[in-house]
Amino acid sequence: MKAFVTGANGFTGSHLIKLLQQKGHIVKGLVRSSSNLSRLEGCEVELIRGDITDRNALRKGMEGVDTVFHVAAYVELGLVDEAQMERVNVEGTRAVLEVAKEMGISKLVYCSTIGIFGDTQGVAIDETFERQQKDFSSAYDRTKYEAQQWVDRFAAEGFPVVSVMPSGIFGLDDPHFAPVMQLFLKKRLWVWVGGDRVTGIVHVDDVAKAMILAAEKGRLGEYYILSAGDLTTREMLNILAQKTEIPLPIEIPETLVRFLGNGFDLIGKIFSWNPPISRERVHYIYDRCVRVKADKAYQELGWQPRSVSEVMLEFLYQD
């Protein structure tokens, strides 16, 4: 396989590139001129510099390539640049699809998200679920949903694209979950919120494995949910606490968190700051619950991820 990976220097993209290389595949990757390339240190990858909407850069990246992995995305909650998020997530996906079709790419694997299904209200759903939520929980929720609509449109026209839908992606270099776990293990996580919040969990290397399997075995136009299972935030920390005997931090009451979210929203808008607690983040913590089943990936792709306990315990053995 000769592959082209968008978002090559990102968390998921860099792990995918390393696994592709381990398997002997030739890899090209798209990065911005300002990108931090530390995640790609030691990788033998041909880097194409350009924006995700730069069709000339995309053509250069896809030249001589048979498989495209579209991983690039703007992932953030709270007070975000919604126009920029739409440009990256929606227009970027459209550009990748159009250029891939133009270049005659034989397979495109799109890294979507379980969030496209909307709030499932705690019910575990599979790929056949039709979104019930009429509105959107965030700009990220909306733009990833709209991007998926473009992917589905191209699939309906016969373009060879497969979508994978990861749940929460974990790993030692994960920019979202790992810092919290590391603070806990350093005994510096003194307070926390949302102990009952349910999160689907999958290791970043297992996402990379699934994407390669989707390129090899995935049926065109199909969705494949990727999740090893789910845990509440309390259960996550308990797994680490039982091994380390570190006590759980104090949980801030929900009423206070909601009050702080409203207040920080106002401050953030005044000072152009995305606070750690905002109205949108509070909504994700207490009001929205997306649960999924990954049976289809197990059965059709032969995917075998590590367990949720193994994912969490990896944080104990980092250098």
UniProtKB/TrEMBL annotation:
<dbReference type="Pfam" id="PF01370">
    <property type="entry name" value="Epimerase"/>
</dbReference>
<protein>
    <submittedName>
        <fullName>NAD-dependent epimerase/dehydratase</fullName>
    </submittedName>
</protein>
<dbReference type="GO" id="GO:0004029">
    <property type="term" value="F:aldehyde dehydrogenase (NAD+) activity"/>
</dbReference>
<dbReference type="GO" id="GO:0005737">
    <property type="term" value="C:cytoplasm"/>
</dbReference>
<dbReference type="InterPro" id="IPR051783">
    <property type="entry name" value="NAD(P)-dependent_oxidoreduct"/>
</dbReference>
<feature type="domain" description="NAD-dependent epimerase/dehydratase">
    <location>
        <begin position="4"/>
        <end position="221"/>
    </location>
</feature>
<dbReference type="InterPro" id="IPR001509">
    <property type="entry name" value="Epimerase_deHydtase"/>
</dbReference>
<dbReference type="InterPro" id="IPR036291">
    <property type="entry name" value="NAD(P)-bd_dom_sf"/>
</dbReference>
